[in-house]
Amino acid sequence: MQRSVTSVIAGKPASGAPGGTLTSVSPADLSQPVAQVALGDAGTFAAAARAARAAQAGWADVPAPVRGRAIAHIGRLVEDNAQALARLVTREIGKPYAEALGEVREIVDTCDFFLGEGRRLYGQTVPSEMPDKQLFTFRNPVGVVSVITAGNFPVAVPSWYLIPALLCGNTVVWKPAEYAAASGAALFELITRGGGLPDGVLNLVLADGEQTFAGLSSALAEGTVDKIGFTGSSAAGERVGELAGRYRQAACLELGGKNPMVVTPSADLDLATEGALFAGFGTAGQRCTSLGTVIVHESVHEEFLARFDAAARAAAVGDPMGGVLYGPMLAAKFAERFEEYLGWIQPHHRVLGSTAVGRITADAPRQGFAGGDPGAGLFYHPVIVDGVREDDAIFMQETFGPMVGVTTYRDLAEAIRLGNAPGYGLSSAIYTRDPAEVFAFRRGISAGMVSVNNSTSGAEAHLPFGGNGRSGNGARQSGIWVLDQFTRWQSVNWDYSGKLQKAQMDVAELAGDPGYRLD
Ligand code: UN1
User: Fold this and answer.
1) Which DSSP letter does residue 430 get?
2) Active site residue 254
3) N or C: which terminus of the chain has fewer CB atoms within 10 Å of its end residue's CB?
4) In angstroms, what is the span from residue 200 Cα to ligand 1's centroid?
5) pLDDT tens digits, 477-495
6) DSSP label at 287?
7) Tell me, what DSSP letter sits at residue 501?
8) Active-site hit among 92, 106, 117, 254
């Protein structure tokens, strides 16, 4: 079945396609269209921001517990449509079905967390330094939030923004990845219908990156966007952050990663191998939390490498509707970029993990490929690149795709230094049985997220999620922490003494006896 999807502004599907049309195709079989996408342009984005602005005051007036109930209904509707949504995600971006179901689960988890927040959204009562005066804090919605998301998690990661932003009383313009437009449009329907959202509270813009940037620029100039949430590449995020800064805004940036995994001499090597396999090659290495480089102690390097190689060779790659470790690349542009990363392999590297390097085809087959003709889709061999050095591009840059570098270390300080060297700071992992190593690693690693004896990927939906350095600007999503992204604190002081009491000046001081000493 082929769908038609378009932008939706103030509850109305946009007519025409000022940004052109595209056909989203299944990356597992490029001959299978998934959706016809009518793209908007900068004007579409700006119009959506105006609609969101017009709806914002009304939405903020809806009591927070009522908004929380809307989130509850959204969660139930997503749950009741979980299989259909997961199937669509698998068809559109090639994520294995079991993972797609997990992704949908992450939306439900997010709704479960925030439905109760509608009855909290706590402020504080704070004592005053003067009598007959009381201090308070309130959380106010920021206003209009513009959310721009990637397509590797086409529904879960958007929900991390949309659900708390709406709960807090903001209205939203959401621009999903255009190559995952059908999944985005499906989530949009589930949220607006499930929540019974008034028109304009959530608006959908389907557009390419440049038109979105232009539309965002003009919306900021018009004053119709108050907050930006962006998940995508570090390069694009830097542009968005710079633009936001011109309007005195701090965007919530969730960018790339070069996530290290340290394997120490005391590590359970079977567990570390399993973790590295899932972290490096799950989702075809296309998570921002995917494993970048294994930093393994030189004493266990050969043994770990042999196990990791064997596990990668044995892993099922193929049809994402089957029980595979990974399927195809998300879309053609990711396959093209991955080919560039493969070009970074150098003669000093030892390449392992599969029967060939590059695209899986009849001429470069993968032993045990799980599916029909691999050439029909964008399937790539897993690549383990041993012997990466600090000045290698493969060591320094994110290589979005099924590629993992391996290097060695002598002492933990060196492992931590290597883990931090690329300058990202999203996720990290250490495999060890030594608690002292766990805490030294936690303290030294620059990452926002640390896994102990676990994969770099697969964070739970209610812990702070986000990174430092090239991975972001320190913003955190998820759980209670994201509330600071979508609300602004307002402090109130209320003096009912009937006179002007001046802070810091009209404050009583009790006279103590500072000279007193015990005998
Ligand atoms: C991403 O790739 O942008 O922690 C998000 C994880 C997932 C989310 C990844 N829960 O791997």
Assistant:
1) E
2) yes
3) C
4) 29
5) 999 999 999 999 999 999 9
6) S
7) P
8) 254
